[in-house]
Design a protein that fits this description.
By secondary structure, this protein is an alpha+beta fold. About 30% of the residues lie in helices and about 20% in strands. The strands form 2 sheets. A 4-stranded mixed beta sheet has the order 1-2-4-3, sandwiched between helices. Strands 5-6 form a two-stranded antiparallel ribbon. The relative contact order is 0.17.
């Protein structure tokens, strides 16, 4: 039998929310967490544990989805089924004791845990192929397939357990959502955030609450003016070491500041 797993690699299953992790402190060079949405009861606690068990000089990387559908040009109406679904899922997850954070919240939890050199990249992932940009259009194609194939299963789990809906009610809602997912007249997207932090070589005491990184605020619409080296960002913003990054190769080459998805809707195909 061919075993393609390297000798220095092994797989273990454990509970990341357990009060005490199986492994010793200062143990890992790198910890990676991805798409744990609606699975974690206390995100701040999880990030503190990751810090505790990362070696000094090691890294923790978190990649997450903010599942709330949004649009920059108002084509996603507050009365739409996608907007309704967003509110329902967030409510259901909270009642199920698995709250869904807003994408701006993770950075602060990294800071409070003690991580330094915090870097954040934010992507707006289009719901379908509505953007003019070829790369975003390609991303939207795969995102649409993922939604059409997987959104019902996620919704059944959360809405039946968190809000005590009947399975039939969920399926009716999904039937209403699918046309909106496919509509190129709705320029909707979801937000993905990647946050990486390094544990300092000489970590401060566990009670330290030092702040690290740039203080340029990041809003859902892009970079705002700097708030100064010691001023906290407004509640609806975030201190971002790395500005909003689009999924466009052209913008990645020409600018590190990124652009809004709404900048790309001129010439978008309409349904």
């Amino acid at each position: 039998m061919n075993n393609s797993v390297p000798e220095n690699l092994r797989f273990e299953i454990d509970d990341c929310e357990a009060k005490f992790w199986t492994w010793p402190e200062d143990h890992f060079d790198y910890i990676h967490s991805r798409f744990m949405i609606a699975s974690i009861g206390n995100w701040a606690s999880l990030i503190r544990k990751a810090y505790k068990h990362t070696k000094p000089g090691g890294y923790f990387e978190l990649q997450e989805l903010d599942c709330r559908f949004a649009s920059d040009d108002g084509t996603l109406l507050p009365t739409s089924n996608l907007a309704y679904w967003s509110d329902l899922i967030v409510e259901a997850a909270a009642k199920y004791n698995r709250p869904i954070p807003h994408y701006t919240e993770y950075f602060g939890w990294f800071e409070k845990a003690g991580f330094t050199d915090i870097q954040q990249v934010v992507f707006k992932s289009p719901t379908n192929t509505w953007p003019k940009d070829r790369t975003l259009k390609e991303a939207g194609k795969y995102q649409l397939v993922a939604h059409l194939e997987g959104l019902e299963g996620i919704s059944l789990g959360l809405l039946t357990r968190g809000l005590e809906w009947k399975a039939e009610e969920v399926k009716i809602l999904m039937a209403k959502i699918r046309p909106e997912l496919k509509s190129k007249a709705i320029h909707s997207y979801q937000t993905k955030v990647f946050v990486t932090g390094r544990k300092p070589e000489n970590p401060p005491p566990a009670t330290s609450a030092s702040r690290f990184g740039s203080t340029a605020p990041l809003t859902p619409n892009g970079m705002g003016p700097s708030t100064g080296p010691s001023s906290p960002a407004p509640p609806d913003q975030i201190n971002a070491f790395t500005p909003v990054m689009p999924i466009t190769q052209e913008a990645m080459k020409s600018s590190k500041r990124g652009m809004k998805v709404s900048d790309l809707i001129n010439g978008a195909e309409e349904s």
